[in-house]
Amino acid sequence: MMEFERIVVILRHVLVVILMVFGVDLVPAHAEKIMIGATSYWNPFCYKSEVEPYGAKGFSVDVLRQILEDDGKKPVFVILPWKRCLRMLEFKQLDLVLDGSMNSERLGKYIFSDEMYRVEHVLIYSKKKFPDGPVIDNAADIGRYSLGGLAGFNFEVYPFDVSQVQDSAADYRGLLAMLQFERFDLAIGLKQVVLAHAKMNNLDMSEFGMLKIPMMNSIPFYVLASNTPSGRILIRRINKGLVKLRESGEYETYLIKHGIEVIE
């Protein structure tokens, strides 16, 4: 992108910040409200903010907010547990839900935007329990260890038995605490989210190690909508907006802002 276009992008972001600081609404008061479910622990993509006007912040929030406001809509982000987000979307109490991955059950209930971003799968272990790390050369080796994960997480994507995963942790802080107390041997997580959550919450990660999960590619995440005429219209507009942001360079600007590396 030419230097002039980069300057325009930067000036636009500065203007948005100034307007938000002084409480100036960026869309008309009569604009259609779009209710969006979001989780509080998905930093750097989405997490709770007590000071932001939208109640949430992160990469996904910035991208979707700009797309909807450019389309004349007023986004309203609601921080909720993940499973509740999906239930409310199913019963038309929300218009959209951020940061969802695909599985067979969801494909039957919802429609998905184009890819928003990708993250890497990892197994987290306690260095106290495994000073040299667990011995995992292939997916079959994982079956020798007990596993923990986040409540509501999509475990169907993994090439090993997940039927016994202890998925009672509400967020990564709780998951790491359970791992430290040896409730299970290994925790299933997403590298970028775990590290960003730890940084935001001042969690000491020096006692933990991470291993890439064998036979697993990076996983894409999407915006979800109900499979209704209005949901399909929203998804089409979001997809067009993603193309526009990528072409303008603003998508990359948001990646840099939130310290997110591009994963192919």
Structure description:
The protein has 264 residues and is of the alpha/beta class. The protein folds into two domains: 3-117 and 220-257, D-Maltodextrin-Binding Protein, domain 2 (3-Layer(aba) Sandwich); 121-212, D-Maltodextrin-Binding Protein, domain 2, CATH 3.40.190.10. 35% of the residues lie in helices and 23% in strands. It has eight helices and 14 strands. Strands 1, 5, 6, 7, 8 and 14 form a six-stranded mixed β-sheet that branches.
Ends distance:
21 Å
Q: Give me the secondary-structure category.
A: alpha/beta
Overall mean pLDDT: 86
Secondary-structure element series: HEEEEHEHEHEEEEEHEHEEHH
Largest sheet: 6 strands, mixed
Number of domains: 2
Q: What's the tally of helices?
A: 8
Specify the helix fraction band. Answer: 25-40%
Regarding quaternary structure, how should these chains be classified?
A: single chain
Name the poorly predicted regions. Answer: 14-25
Shape: globular
Fill in the CATH topology of the largest domain. Answer: D-Maltodextrin-Binding Protein, domain 2
CATH superfamily of the largest domain: Periplasmic binding protein-like II
Determine Rg (CA atoms, Å). Answer: 19 Å
CATH architecture descriptor name of the largest domain: 3-Layer(aba) Sandwich
List how many beta strands DSSP finds: 14
What percent of residues are in strands?
A: 15-25%
| CATH C-level name of the largest domain | Alpha Beta
